[in-house]
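User: My advisor, Dr. K., asked me to get a structural model of this assembly before our group meeting. I'm new to this, so sorry if the format is off. These are the inputs:
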Amino acid sequence: RKEVEQDPGPFNVPEGATVAFNCTYSNSASQSFFWYRQDCRKEPKLLMSVYSSGNEDGRFTAQLNRASQYISLLIRDSKLSDSATYLCVVNGITGGGNKLTFGTGTQLKVEL
Amino acid sequence: DAGVTQSPTHLIKTRGQQVTLRCSPKSGHDTVSWYQQALGQGPQFIFQYYEEEERQRGNFPDRFSGHQFPNYSSELNVNALLLGDSALYLCASSLGPGTSTDTQYFGPGTRLTVL
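Assistant: The format is fine. Below is the predicted structure of the whole assembly, which you can bring to the meeting.
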């Protein structure tokens, strides 16, 4: 089983639609959680951190369920510029260091 | 405020050769992590450097080695290149390892092609 699992998509949605991405992780000791966005042939960029209480940043809402080891990202009122790959990321701390474990990413295509 | 920088941007090598990739962290950051991203996959953790020491390592062979300098910049070395080493190599910097809230910022990456 992969440490972080995501549906690879692609999700093709019309502009203005609401789209939700889900992610599960296997290590219950994971410390922190993120969504990164990656445009084609570019580096990943932090979209938002994810907290158990849920957090919102404009059109984006992220949620963490530690009991189910499940992370979600909701994008409302999709824009063409939201087209990208969304990476679910889990941060684990062991042995004096920490590492990010990435899912394979979910591809989103927003169309006119 | 300079972000994370990496050099070179692209590199072509042949099997068996050795390669060195370089990374300068974001201003104020002291920790550098390296990741390998194959086409269609998420980045895979290679190792992390802090205080010039390797603090954590992913599931990569000893052909992959690194170094961190006193100015916090870092190098990734790969020996005896294989075709499967072709990937985008990403460097990420952060402030201090081992904290649950540190955020890693990525450089633009070095695209390595092994022929």
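One thing worth pointing out at the meeting: The interface with chain A takes residues 33, 35, 40-45, 48, 50, 55-56, 58, 88, 90, 92, 97-109 of chain B (CB under 8 Å).

User: Perfect, thanks a lot.
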